[in-house]
Design goal:
Elements (H helix, E strand, L loop, with lengths): L11 H17 L6 E5 L6 E3 L3 H6 L6 H4 L7 H11 L9 E3 L1 H8 L5 E5 L3 H10 L6 E4 L3 H8 L3 E2 L2 E2 L2 E6 L10 H14 L4 E8 L6 H8 L6 E7 L11 E7 L5 H5 L2 H9 L5 E8 L3
Parallel strand pairs: 1-4, 1-8, 4-5, 8-9
Antiparallel strand pairs: 2-3, 6-7, 9-11, 10-11, 10-12
Bound molecules: S-adenosylmethionine.
Length: 285
């Protein structure tokens, strides 16, 4: 376990992932009924952009920092920028909120979050961050195993019918991670079929993802949408050229809600040869 998200916090991949995450949470909040979120790979929850790690890569300068001060942005992006701003002094981003913090900030009193993290230091930071928030449980455990142990969600004898599973692994085994992820997605669909499920994936060479998407398309999974941002052509296996989110069972009209963000991401975060994609790989008829 060498991966540390502090090196990457606020980069183009976080911008895409967290904008989509917040849009899903907003869709869940359209109903009063409580929802549950399982964040399987949570990280430490909050990142200082002045840290040695962040300064070493400077990745946030190609991500969140490029969006600051831009007028007339579409709703999903302004929503995301407001969420980041609520953790920062006016007009600057010194701290970048990770997925569990964004989720907790978006939740209401009745909603619940369980966040899993397997790195001992990251998990300890995360526990401290949420030590006073009764709505959030932090588990120092394998997020994939938590799916088996915690779904369908039941807390204090309350069953949660609505919610989200966010899966954001570090992909240290690269493409070899996908067969395991496929099994995990199928398991989530069996255990908690009503849930939305969002998987983040890196794109180096997009063609390497095709077998995984074909498997999803030919599985009993009912609906699957992919949303991608490539900041440059996907021609090198050596660097992160872009990333995507695979959404299973997306909220109603989610494609239309998120679409306006993509050309703006391409224009503001992209380099030469940037592109975006919004595509149903499986759609309920
Ligand atoms: C990409 S980072 C998470 C970033 C976070 N989701 C966010 O958006 O702010 C992946 C995290 O997963 C942790 N991790 C790696 N393997 C894990 C596993 N099997 N279960 C839970 N966490 C794991 C790593 O330590 C790392 O902090």
């Amino acid at each position: 376990m060498n991966y540390r998200h502090a090196y990457h916090a606020g980069n183009h991949a976080d911008v895409l992932k967290h904008t989509i995450l917040l849009a899903i949470l907003d869709a869940l909040k359209r109903k009063e009924t409580a929802f549950f979120v399982l964040d399987t790979h949570a990280g430490r929850g909050r990142y200082l952009l002045s840290s040695q790690e962040s300064q070493k890569t400077g990745e946030s300068s190609g991500g969140i920092l490029r969006l600051l001060g831009e007028p007339d942005l579409p709703l999903p992006i302004t929503r995301y920028l407001h969420a980041v701003a609520s953790d920062n002094p006016v007009g600057s981003v010194l701290v970048y909120p990770g997925s569990p913090l964004l989720i907790a900030q978006a939740m209401r009193d009745q909603d619940r979050l369980t966040a899993c993290e397997l790195h001992p230091e990251e998990a300890a930071e995360l526990k401290t961050l949420f030590s006073r928030d009764q709505r959030v449980a932090v588990h120092f455990r394998d997020g994939y195993e938590a799916i088996k142990a915690l779904l369908p969600p039941r807390i204090d004898s309350i069953r949660y019918h609505r919610g989200l599973v966010l899966i954001d692994p570090p992909y240290e085994a690269q493409e070899a991670e996908f067969p395991r992820i496929f099994t995990v997605l199928a398991d989530i669909q069996t255990r908690w079929p009503q849930a939305h499920c969002a998987l983040w994936y890196p794109i180096k060479q997009r063609r390497n993802l095709r077998p995984f998407f074909r498997k999803i398309a030919s599985s009993p999974i009912k609906s699957a949408l992919i949303i991608e941002l490539l900041i440059r052509p996907d021609d090198s296996p050596l660097r992160l050229n872009g990333s995507g989110m695979l959404i299973l069972n997306p909220p109603w009209q989610f494609d239309a809600a998120i679409a306006p963000a993509l050309p703006v991401f391409k224009r503001m975060l992209g380099e030469y040869g940037a592109s975006t994609r919004l595509e149903w790989i499986k759609r309920e008829s």
